[in-house]
Specification:
With 637 residues, the chain is of the alpha/beta class. It is built from 15 helices and 32 strands. It is globular and about 100 Å long. The relative contact order is 0.13. Helix 1 runs parallel beside helix 5 and helix 10 runs parallel beside helix 14. It has 4 domains: 220 residues, Rossmann fold, CATH 3.40.50; 37 residues, no CATH class; 122 residues, Trna Endonuclease, Chain: A, domain 1 (3-Layer(aba) Sandwich), CATH 3.40.1350; 93 residues, no CATH class. The strands form 8 sheets. An 11-stranded mixed beta sheet has the order 13-7-8-6-3-14-15-2-16-1-28, with helices on both faces. Strands 17-18-19-21-23-24 form a 6-stranded mixed beta sheet.
Length: 637
């Protein structure tokens, strides 16, 4: 008989602390985790009624540094994101001890359905969790609650490191795991720093069943970092005023006085507000609420986060959420004048949050990703001292390629398909596959072993404009394929020998877009841009069943631009940071009434700019895949 959960708990906590300690030890080393800025979002969504002055002011922000005190939306594993925030980099300082409030609402139901419904014109696609989400979730619940505690423990340790001495953390759970996590929180933050066990009673009038009481509340555990913490008592309006006795004492006689100063009297007052206690009577989001409800599973009402943020932070404070869901914490923090950091492993979460913040006209913020995600996965799977050549050999073998002789093999990355004149080049997970990589592969094709007829490049991470680069090379004997992003997780679980028949290398997505015109008049410029076509990567790479895959293929063939979820324009792209000064996305009906499609042509008003512009158009499809087109030297017509 195996150990009970209570017997396993000390070992789980000790292992989690060791894992967190390893992360902290690596903060100063060359292998520290970094963040890559994918976009500086300067919210200016497309509308019919354009505010030229607002657009001009925001366009001027293009010249601003993308670093500093900007809020951050981060896509990726929150353990890696926290490691990067603690480490800092050459542009931003460490956030260690600088976060004033952390609120997390981690998944706490092993049987929950985290599929995403994507409503497209004429079809609804039922997408299962992405590969990253799927493996993270399976790891979280592989051994039930024990696995869940193993996941949450090192993350809570890092959260404590991020908290300021006057900071607080709120952990939102329910009956599934709440009581077990309470023990872990006591160990990490200290029992004396446990402040409140808040009951969120959402009075949904659930009927339960014949043998149980209805479950109508969640737990929110409130811990402080130290005895000196920020707290602002909150009040709420009573449904009906009540009459209360107010006792007023004389400082001289120690006796009660009334308003006239007579001894022995009390004052009666009508109380219209009450101090909020640890039972919060706040309704869940209702289906009829079209202004706030984003139809996102597990979404929480803004009133809940408004109460937490108002109670434990002041204006200008820094708020963090590492399981953001639909972005409620970031949205409320922004509205209340707080800076924020929001992270999630789910692409749908970061996509919804970005749109939500643009919708509310947020201040400029950064959209970032883990800069070396695949490298961190490789270190986890193959050990901290893994060699790129070892991984390349595994990838080539799974693709069916035989390695070239050692003297001809660059870092072990080259192979050939048996009985063909086809060279295969497996790129490194530690860098982006760019047009330079493709040219290098063309060189290998022409020079290795007397020359090959064709070269296939297998890549992990690609520059956003790689599709445009492939088209511009115009080489029919160059093929570029995507290494499955879940490959390292699958290797860890099954081993390479069991994967050969299952691994599928997919084609890349590709955007076609361009500048229609650039006109100048009276100190302003009008830039017109348009989307022309979009080619999605192989549907086999998306986690769909056969029926949904067939419906997706039909849309790809008949209306490919209907797959675009979000697109943005940087009219002065510097090649480093994409600064979006104009955005449109599905659900933005400010220009038309079609919530299922983006507009495909845009008119952008800009300050006058001397000389040619370098325009970057970036699009994200409904599955979260990015593509971009860069148009160099756009002159005034």
């Amino acid at each position: 008989m195996g150990k009970s959960l209570l017997e396993q708990l000390p070992g789980i906590v000790a292992t989690g602390k060791r894992q967190a300690a390893q992360v902290l030890e690596q903060l100063e080393g060359r292998n520290r985790v970094t963040l890559q800025t994918r976009e500086l979002v300067i919210p200016s969504k497309d509308t019919v009624a354009t505010d030229l002055f607002t657009q001009a002011d925001r366009a001027d922000l293009q010249s601003a540094s993308p670093n500093g005190e900007l809020s951050r939306l981060i896509y990726g594993d929150n353990l890696l994101a926290m490691a990067a925030l603690l480490a800092g980099d050459q542009n931003t300082s460490s956030m260690r001890g600088k976060v004033d409030l952390i609120y997390i609402d981690p998944p706490f139901d092993s049987k929950a359905d985290y599929r995403t419904k994507i409503i497209l014109p004429g079809a609804t696609i039922d997408q299962k969790p992405t590969v990253f989400e799927q493996f993270a979730y399976s790891d979280t619940w592989s051994d039930g609650t024990a696995s869940y505690l193993a996941m949450i423990t090192p993350r809570l340790v890092l959260m404590r490191e991020l908290l300021a001495d006057t900071g607080s953390i709120f952990v939102h759970l329910d009956w599934h795991v709440g009581h077990y996590v309470k023990i872990v929180l006591d160990e990490i933050f200290g029992r004396d720093n446990f402040t409140n066990d808040i009951v969120w009673w959402y009075y949904n009038k659930m009927q339960g069943n014949i043998k149980t009481f209805p479950r109508n509340h969640d737990y929110i555990m409130f811990y402080r970092k130290s005895a000196s913490f920020t707290f602002n008592p909150q009040k709420e309006k009573r449904l009906e005023p009540i009459r209360q006795i107010k006792r007023v004492w004389s400082s001289e006689t120690k006796s009660l006085v009334n308003a006239k100063g007579d001894d022995g009297k009390v004052v009666y007052i009508d109380s219209t507000h009450r101090t909020i206690d640890d039972v919060w009577r706040l309704s869940m989001l209702q289906p009829a609420d079209k202004t706030e409800n984003l139809r996102f599973n597990t979404q929480k009402p803004e009133t809940l986060l408004e109460r937490i943020i108002s109670a434990t932070t002041d204006e200008g404070s820094l708020v963090a959420d590492f399981f953001i869901g639909s972005g409620t914490t970031a949205a409320v923090a922004e509205r209340l004048g707080r800076r924020w950091v929001a992270t999630d492993l789910g692409k749908p979460s970061t996509m919804i949050t970005r749109k939500r913040l643009i919708d509310q006209n947020a201040k400029p913020f950064l959209y970032q990703a883990i800069g070396d995600y695949q490298v961190e996965q490789a270190r986890s799977t193959l050990g901290r001292s893994f060699r790129v050549g070892d991984l390349a050999k595994v990838v080539l073998d799974l693709y069916g390629a035989l390695p070239l002789p050692t003297e001809e093999n660059v870092n072990g990355s080259l192979g050939r398909l048996p009985s063909t004149r086809t060279l295969v080049y497996a790129d490194s997970p530690s860098k982006l596959t760019t047009v330079s990589t493709l040219r290098r592969a063309q060189g290998y094709r022409d020079s290795k072993l007397g020359g090959f007829e064709k070269v296939i490049v297998l890549g992990w991470n690609f520059s956003a404009g790689i599709g445009q680069d492939i088209a511009s090379l115009g080489d029919p004997n160059l093929e570029v394929l995507v290494i499955p992003p879940d490959l390292l997780d699958r290797l860890k679980k099954k081993g390479a020998d069991k994967l050969a028949a299952e691994v599928r290398f997919s084609s890349l997505q590709f955007l076609q877009a361009g500048v229609i015109s650039r006109k100048a008049s009276a100190g302003r410029e009008e830039l017109r841009v348009a989307l022309h076509n979009y080619v999605l990567l192989s549907p086999e790479a998306i986690n769909l069943d056969d029926k949904n895959r067939a419906e997706l293929q039909s849309i790809m063939n008949n209306e490919p631009l209907a797959l675009i979820e979000y697109w943005a324009v940087d009219p002065d792209y510097d090649g480093e940071v994409f600064r979006s000064v104009w955005q449109d996305y599905r659900g933005n009906t400010g220009n038309d009434d079609d919530a299922l499609r983006v507009i495909t042509a845009a008119q952008i008003d800009l300050p006058i700019h001397d000389g040619p512009r370098r325009v970057c158009i970036r699009a994200v499809d409904v599955f979260g895949y990015e593509s971009e087109v860069v148009i160099d030297r756009v002159e005034v017509d």
